[in-house]
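Hey,
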Amino acid sequence: MTEKATVEVSEIHWLMDMFQSVDVGLVVLDREYKIQVWNGFMENHSGLSPYEVRDKSLFEAFPNLDKEWLLQKTDPVFVLKNRAFTIWEQHAHIFKFKNYRPITSVAPFMYQNATFIPLTNTTGDVTHLCIIIYDVTDVAISKIELQEVNKELQRLSRTDRLTNLNNRGYWEECLQREFLRQRRGHSVSSLLIFDIDHFKKVNDTYGHAGGDEAILHLAKILKKSLRETDIGGRYGGEEYAVILTGTQAKDAYVFAERLRIMVEKSIVSYNEFEFQFTISLGIAEYTDELNSHQNWIEVADSALYKAKVGGRNRVEIYAHPDKSEAKED
């Protein structure tokens, strides 16, 4: 063997060694999607040797592949001779390999990025396709965990710590959006505001911890009563508010009366004590006469005040001036 031939053989040897040991997956397919090349990375993670998959259809060897999606990515590569790319955020993986990295053992599978490269013959025709698979599990898990942390922080920023209801800031943002939606669409919604009757007496008798228990007790009853479309929140102290979307005042009254009775009949258990309390509730249906979401709160609050003056443990609906005048006429 000549010196030149020896050098060429040596170069081929280390190129093949690099091809087999590189930490990315390398797969070459022909136009019929039959596997022609299958490197060490693919063998290690699939458990299939190059001899087992050689000349097999990719989709027969891996029946769980998302065939329709993969063909959408690869067919243009064959036709247009352009590279294509995909990232794990678009499609978590091509080959569902188990994740063996100890640092990211929480991942059920390997997250993958991929590059699709057209391979041409001497006449420039695309005869084969190379798929390069990158293991990006560490990056994916880090990003997913960060997103979860940010989501939890966002939830905490809008949640009342004692009751786990929406806090006043977030609830009022929701009310403002609902006010603007009503102003545009002229549909129907009602606002309900209520609080605990004689709450100072509860605090004086059972202490502030007993008062907190009453607040929490009421929040639990409210959460059980809310529909999916309702937006409830702690407005402040022992006061609560609920946006009842798609609800007229007369239907909001039914909701409020049911809530009032449930609270009246329930018993708060705190240490060795058991006690009961009642609530007063005010309702205001949206009308075009309201000039802001704060104005909406004010009229609902005035209905609550009327319930208090009227003897407490009752529901009052705010009578809009135009409606009152209409009734008098």
